[in-house]
Amino acid sequence: MEIQAPKGTKDMLPSQAYKWHYVENIFREISKNFGIKEIRTPVFEHTELFLRGVGETTDIVQKEMYTFKDKGDRSITLKPEGTAPAVRAFIESRLFNEAQPTKLYYITPCFRYEKAQKGRYRQFHQYGVEMFGSKEPSMDAEVMALAMGVLKKVGLKSLKLNINNLGCPECRPKYNEALKAFLKENYDSLCETCKTRFEKNPMRILDCKEKSCKEITKNAPIILDYTCDSCNDHFSKVKEYLDVLEIPYSVDPGIVRGLDYYTKTIFEILNDDYTVCGGGRYDKLIEEIGGPEMPAVGFGMGIERLIATIEDENIEVPREDDIELYISARGEEGKMYAFKLAHKLREIGVNAEINHAGRSFKAEMKFANKIGALFNLVIGDDELGTKEAKIKRMKDREEFNIKLDNLEEIKQIIKSQK
Ligand code: HAM
């Protein structure tokens, strides 16, 4: 029987690769413009990191982690997100001793045992950015500007930036009390998970995906009515910075995000179908994971969702180079010559292909067309004798004379006459 990929996973097939490369190139290019360096962390971590980092009352920790015991009886978890691992590495490598802020980005797979559906996978990929060591509101705005800049460069048009202020450990307890007072009346109708959240972390109830809980929280008090002066000041400045950059946004008091570490600014970038990017400030996480007191802000962007949006919006993604030169050969000697020539041309940067399938000479032409080769070169007895040949441009059959031992000339013609 045929074996299929596990539910909630997706192959990136060769026919799709150019779209992934296109967005990844943009991530790297724009990150570079913002002075952000790449970090790669392991695919798995000690489970403890996410319990402390993401939060014990979140859906991710309560329902979605791929957690298992390894052969040494350690509890291991496949990373459900990239922030906690980046913070762990930052602390472990003592990067906090260097000049701050530290600006990091990653492109990583993430794993969450979620109900698989369009745009929601069990293995998905994130482009994430984390800025450590700046409490300035300009950094919140820079992070959002970066995310919007990436999406603009990719070509997306129908995106909305929603922001909110989640307060800090000073003002949030007051909000939690108000929220609990409001939810108390409907406590019995909350889902079982939310009942456990009521005492520990009532704000998590606002993020529950259960219909009944959504209904109950519809008219819940909003955090913006409870935030302290310092959080309000910070939020006003963030908005001012966004205005300076002319980045449109809406304040949405309803967003709370699905992870526990956020303080002050949070944001989401969405289209009609789903959230493509989410992030915010998390000023206490570095300390909670064992590092020094140090503020931070960042985001994660779902790459599958980004690519789905590119497709929905019919954005044309530049294709990568097809085969530039297909070399056909007659006879054993010709074949050997073609084999060596293709190798030599590849060494100097020409994308060349030869007959590896035992095709007849006639079938080779068809094949060259099928794979979209831009030029064709035939090596027969004459060519072997004179070391002169013609390369033919497939689209209009125009021919160019070449000398077989002048590789640079062949390359130059191919690159300039495509
Ligand atoms: P998050 O909102 O959980 O935040 O995930 C960020 C993005 O990852 C989402 O907006 C979405 O595009 C994508 N995503 C999440 N779950 C799935 C899924 N099951 N299938 C496909 N795509 C998905 C974080 O992970 C935070 N670490 C972001 C952050 C970084 N905040 C501060 N720094």
From TrEMBL:
PROSITE patterns: AA_TRNA_LIGASE_II. It is an enzyme of class 6 (ligase). Its EC number is 6.1.1.21. Residues 1-318 form the Aminoacyl-transfer RNA synthetases class-II family profile domain. Gene3D superfamilies: Anticodon-binding domain (3.40.50.800), Bira Bifunctional Protein, Domain 2 (3.30.930.10). It is found in: Cytoplasm. One of its GO terms (biological process) is histidyl-tRNA aminoacylation. CDD domains: HisRS-like_core, HisRS_anticodon. L-histidine binds at E81, G82, T83, R112, Q126, E130, R257, Y261, Y262. InterPro entries: aa-tRNA-synth_II, aa-tRNA-synth_II/BPL/LPL, Anticodon-bd, Anticodon-bd_dom_sf, His-tRNA-ligase, HisRS-like_core, HisRS/HisZ, HisRS_anticodon. It comes from the Bacteria. It catalyses: tRNA(His) + L-histidine + ATP = L-histidyl-tRNA(His) + AMP + diphosphate + H(+). One of its GO terms (molecular function) is ATP binding. Its main location: cytoplasm. The keyword Nucleus does not apply. One of its GO terms (cellular component) is cytoplasm. Keywords: Aminoacyl-tRNA synthetase, ATP-binding, Cytoplasm, Ligase, Nucleotide-binding, Protein biosynthesis. Belongs to the class-II aminoacyl-tRNA synthetase family. This is Histidine--tRNA ligase. The gene is hisS.
